[in-house]
From TrEMBL:
Family: Belongs to the pyridoxal phosphate-binding protein YggS/PROSC family.
PANTHER family membership: PROLINE SYNTHETASE CO-TRANSCRIBED BACTERIAL HOMOLOG PROTEIN, PYRIDOXAL PHOSPHATE HOMEOSTASIS PROTEIN
Source organism: Psychrobacter halodurans
Protein name, entry field: Pyridoxal phosphate homeostasis protein
Keywords for the protein's UniProt record, in alphabetical order: Pyridoxal phosphate
Length: 231
């Protein structure tokens, strides 16, 4: 991929996030741009890291581990914060707990427990988001809103996890998913004053970032608009 094309895209997306924050009267420094680099080579990640992009999201574990390994020795990549945003199989939790800084797709108690038990002692606690199936669709991943209280209580009791907030991937037809999730996010914050790090609402992708930010998103996950289309 052409390096300048990539940098131009990234700068444009960055400017769009800042503009959306101004529109929404929220502060751009409070909205994190997560660059979703799935299927893209490690060198594209290094290029953006050199420009100052810190947060990268990966969906496919094996591919992610290879890239993390490849970038380990590169000075520009030293400060990268890795987010796991793919679905989690039970037998993959150890690799995730050992190699990522954040996991955005926690949807079941058993997965949270395994991530907690497997987080290495020499690393800081793992930041986690609960993925919510906000459309209540059988076919979609995520915890149903009705199951949230139990999952949140469980995660709160785990010392090696820090519960930071919620993540959603809404159905395209659902035009008020962002507003409902914002409400859910605020309700949980009010109900659990002891959740000291409850500060992250991960919603919005290439096509709907501005709308998500208008509804209180604090983290937009952007792939295509930065890296171009995927194979
Ligand atoms: C691929 C992916 C994205 C990025 O989607 P784009 O439309 O390419 O911006 C965001 N979030 C998740 C969970 C993804 O899997």
């Amino acid at each position: 991929m052409d390096k300048q094309y990539l940098i131009d895209n990234w700068q444009r997306v960055h400017a769009q996030v800042v503009a959306a924050c101004e529109q929404a009267d929220s502060h751009a420094e409070q909205v994190t741009l997560l660059a979703v680099s799935k299927t893209k080579p490690a060198q594209t990640i290094a290029t953006l890291a050199q420009q100052g992009q810190r947060h990268f999201g990966e969906n496919y574990l094996q591919e992610a581990l290879e890239k993390i390994n490849e970038l380990q020795s590169q000075p520009d990549a030293e400060h990268i914060v890795w987010h796991y945003i793919g679905s989690i199989q039970r037998n993959k939790t150890r690799d995730i707990a050992e190699h990522f800084d954040w996991v955005q797709t926690v949807e079941r108690g058993i997965i949270a427990k395994r991530l907690n038990d497997q987080r290495p002692e020499d690393l800081p606690p793992l930041n986690v988001l609960v993925q919510v199936n906000i459309d209540d669709e059988d076919s979609k991943s995520g915890c149903l809103p009705a199951e949230l209280p139990e999952l949140i209580s469980a995660i709160k009791s785990y010392e090696r996890l820090i519960l930071r907030g919620l993540m959603i991937i809404p159905a395209k037809a659902d035009t008020n998913a962002f507003a409902r999730t914002q409400q859910l996010f605020e309700d949980i914050k009010d109900k659990h004053p002891d959740l000291a790090h409850w500060d992250t609402l991960s919603m919005g992708m290439s096509g709907d970032m501005a709308d998500a930010i208008a509804h209180g998103s604090t983290m937009v996950r952007v792939g295509t608009a930065i890296f171009g289309s995927r194979e």
